[in-house]
Amino acid sequence: MTATDIMLHLQNLGQESYKKILLKHGICEPLYGVKIEELKKIAKKEKDGYALSLELWDTGIYDARYLAGLLTEPTKMLPADLQHWAETANAPVLRESTVAWVASESLHGWAKAMEWIGTGNADLSSSGWATLGDLVAITSDAALDIIALGTLLERVAATIHQSANREKLTQNGFIIAVGTYVKPLHAAALAAAARVGKVTADMGDTACKIPDAAEYISKAVAKNTVGKKRKSARCL
Length: 236
Prior knowledge:
The chain is 64% helix and 0% strand. The chain has a domain at 109-229. The relative contact order is 0.10. It is mainly α.
């Protein structure tokens, strides 16, 4: 399908009841209210999705942007593409899931993440920390910069409580990801989690809470899955 065909299809799939749920979770208009399982069905049918994903993203419509992240080809994404998506993402889930997923699976994930967390912009920083969390989940420990990741853990432990709301969420997620997926830093991540303690933030009109990092990492220990990598950052 062309981008125009897909947009018409998305309009028909939209549900007002689901749209109301999305609005409560910080999604902004314009959006149609298409459920994720329907977006996944479309993504599975489309091939060579890189160019199509760029068109869909530039519609500015939430559902199309989420779909763009599912069907794009991350290794074809250029640094400029990733920067454009990060700068124009207008909802937490797009910044912390879509952009982070695609960036972590691209050839430029580490560089862009480090750039974003150093901008002083809370939205870009959130994308950066989420990207780092996804990247460690899909990259072998041998290919990771363990020393740099250890330094980042220390940075988060020292600053998380002064960070903006969504930064807190993604920084906490970074601790969890390192403790769960990076064996050489498992103990360091647990120590960072203990140092950080309870993290609170305004999650809007939802029942969402920031998970306890130490408790979350301990679940991976109980399941004997520490260090077990994921095949993909994206939930396809």
